What does this fold into?
Amino acid sequence: MTSINAYKMDGLGNDFIIIDRRKNSINLTREKIIELGSRSNIGFDQIIFIEKEKENSFPITIFNSDGGEISACGNGSRCVAYLLGKNLNTKEIKLKTNNRLLNAKIVGNLQVELEMGKPLFGSEDIPLSKKINPADITLEINNKKFTGGFCVNVGNPHIIFFVKNCFEYDLKTIGPKIENHILFPEKTNVTMAQIIDENNITVNVWERGAGLTKACGTAACATAIAAFKNKLVNNEVDIKFKEGFLNVKIDKTENIFMTGPVSEIETIDFEK
It folds into this structure.
């Protein structure tokens, strides 16, 4: 069997396997990704492949632990940027997903800033299966109405509900039902967000294709822009997860910048 060298990293407990295939072609089947992603195996939220440099940026290919390919992973991108920055002895890295160019900077010890780009608010851009107001969504789940949902795409689709206590909701039960709701043709990430004050939000996140997660970078960005558009917070806010927080800034053009910690780089090996 072939042994594969990889890296394990996390951002606030949101964990990843990173495989560098700039020099060697390494492919894993969907079944292998699911096997490796199981918490009884190596376990991860996403697996990320670094591709050969192209036009001064590094394309990345991302898969959830359910084996499905996705377009965005904020914390994972910050981890990849840190790994490449150390490898190439630089503090600035450009990453390319299949729908965005991401500028990353190492701004301190194990601290990485990622420019996420501009959010998309149109029904067709999120996407939603019908044209309705994305900023005021009502869903009926388990005979209970969830109102005031805010939908946005920050490289991937999200819905955010602003609630009094984000941890009183059983996301293991309702998360997958909202994720797979008919309104979301590409499924969606789900966040219960609790406004603490104009500079702080606590969140509880169900991640599309990965389930209940300790942290989610794109959810932090989506929550920040949703709260800002609803005039609930300032243009700079800390999004608190179980193991710490991500700082999100929104500039005058609604460009989103996310800054937070990454773990040390762990080298691992597994059989293909």
